Amino acid sequence: MDKQEATIAAGMNHGYSLRQRISWAVVALIVGVVIAGFWNYKLVDGFGKEMVAGPLIGDTQSLAGTFQENGWDFGFLYAAVAGLAATFTACNCVVFAMMPGIACASNVSARKSLIWTTLAVFTFAVVVVNFFYGLVVGSFESGVLQVYNEREVRIWQAQITFTILGVIMLIWGTIAFGFADRFLGMLPMRFRLIMGDTVTKAGMMGMLVGFFSVGRPFPVFRDFLTYMASAHHPLYGALTMAVQGLAQVAVMLILLVTVHAFFGKQLSRWAANHPSRMELLGAFAMLAGGAYFVYYWGLSFAFDIGRWGFKLDWYG
Questions:
Q1: Is residue 254 a part of any domain in this protein?
Q2: Position 58 in a domain
Q3: 237 close to 137: Cβ distance less than 8 angstroms
Q4: Disulfide-capable partner of 238 in 34, 93, 135, 146 (CB 3.0 to 4.6 Å)?
Q5: Is residue 316 assigned to a domain?
Q6: Reported pTM
Q7: Which domain, by its residues, includes 27?
Q8: How do residues 6-61 score in pLDDT, each as one tens digit?
Q9: What is the H or E stretch that residue 8 is in?
């Protein structure tokens, strides 16, 4: 067994006992649930609409039906603003849970080429998923899109999409914590090496983030869908949606590039000296993000056990 195979096989077992990993996993779940319970959607949605979209292009609701006046070019600006405005919404904030996994995996190697490859693959996967989603929505007729954008439909769509994504993230976090090693040990080593590769993980994370757009109920984003679909051109829908997908991860990418630019060498040394801590950080973030999605979009809607801040009258 070579060094890479040994690393895949061991996971975090070299650095943390089972009891320690269980403790950190429980803390991650609690953090995700607490953030979901106290999430102030009015604040973050309002920030995206009033502080991002408003100053850049104006009232998105009034712009939604202006394709004939503003044309094809404006749609790309609209797409970029819609993606940027969604950065900190409940349907996109979990993108930041991907940061430790990408940053930590990249820093295991001092090769700068791997860092940029990882970011490129992640971004490409986000854009591809959004491209195909744009093809679908761009083919909608006006009546279909109107039903698609109704509040009941978009909330139902968000619940299903983000609950599924949350479950996937929980499974991913469980594997990363080493709780499924016995099962994984039955899989072929070649498959495990491929799935454990940094670039493969980046691509899978990018696909997860790309599907955030599929479930997004954010009004600014839905206004953009109306504008984009008004062109009645699937390829235009795909291209503008791809721009939106890129914009939704722009802040995270800028943060990652900044971290690598200023602290890349320090992180590489730290990762080399404490590989198990890097694994722990990525697993913790993934499990917390999954718990957030499952609780916020799944359990709290189904059983009315969320919106703690509103129920306590903290947010007004």
A1: yes
A2: yes
A3: yes
A4: 135
A5: no
A6: 0.90
A7: 3-311
A8: 555 444 445 788 999 999 999 999 999 999 999 999 999 999 999 999 999 999 99
A9: helix 3-10
